[in-house]
Amino acid sequence: MLASLTIDCTGSFSKLRQKLTISQPVHKSHFVALLLKDCALPYKNYGYVTLTKPAPVLCYQIATNEVRMLVAVPEPLPSASTGELKRFLLETVRPQLPEFFQQPFIAATEEQLRSVPCRTMPTIAVRRPGALCLGDSLNMRHPLTGGGMTVAFTDVSTIARLLKPLATLSDRTAVMHTLQPFYAERRNTAGTINTLAGALYAVFCGGSADPALAPMTDGCFAYFPHYGTDTLGIVAGIYPNPLLLVMHFFAVAFFTMWQLMKPYSTPGKIMQAFGVLFASAKIRPTAH
């Protein structure tokens, strides 16, 4: 028996996607997941980011004395089976972590190391009657900002609103016609969050992809105290406005340039400042 409407929401490893769309995911990096026991974050109910090189480390409390740590690792991922991944974690990442992470981190690396690929994938509309993709089956962005669920729930809300006037889902042609505005309506929210995730990953990687971007890491954290509400509102999908994102992104770039040229400018500082601006301009919007 065939359903009137089948929704594929089986995630980034979806096997149904290839039957519904030509969109294919692209690997950007990996997250290595560690469980730190007998550990607590210094700020209750807040996540914790450590800007290590070559990529950042994200942490969040999952129990009273347990912390989930996600270590971003750019391609290529060191082999876990040969011990290269463990050696990378202990020799490259561990020395850059705060003291309260040290012992729990070392203990966590003794467990089986698991990683998940960080993928990006643009949205291509599914035009097959009776089928629809949602979540990471439809569109992916770098998970650094945790924006995937925000995009997915916003999409669910939009589809529920569009389908509400229909008395039945059995008429596939009518369903397809009703859902036609979906891809246009999701553009602002998805495009804003996707672009922000990609841009922040490029900046927080400390200039690994482009050394000229490295000063923007400090620039971001100097800028956030002034406009933190706006920037967090963009991450959370509260302000799904691409123009607002562009405004803040280049404001960070100019703020970084100003920081670089303090207390007085020199030819070297001026060249570095304009390098930041040019590198910022090269970051392209991510397909929604």
Describe, in short, the structure shown.
With 288 residues, the protein is of the alpha+beta class.
How would you portray this structure in words?
It is a single chain. This protein has helices spanning 17-20, 84-93, 102-108, 148-163, 172-178, 182-185, 187-204, 215-235, 242-260, 267-281, and strands at 6-8, 26-37, 48-50, 57-63, 66-74, 114-120, 131-133. The chain is of the alpha+beta class and 288 residues long. It has 3 domains: 6-25 and 121-185, 3-Layer(bba) Sandwich (FAD/NAD(P)-binding domain); 26-117, Alpha-Beta Plaits; 191-281. The strands form 2 sheets. It has a 5-stranded antiparallel beta sheet with strand order 3-4-5-2-6, with helices on one face. A hairpin with a 6-residue loop joins strand 3 (48-50) and strand 4. Helix 7 (187-204) packs antiparallel against helix 8 (215-235) and helix 8 packs antiparallel against helix 9 (242-260). It is globular, with a radius of gyration of 21 Å.
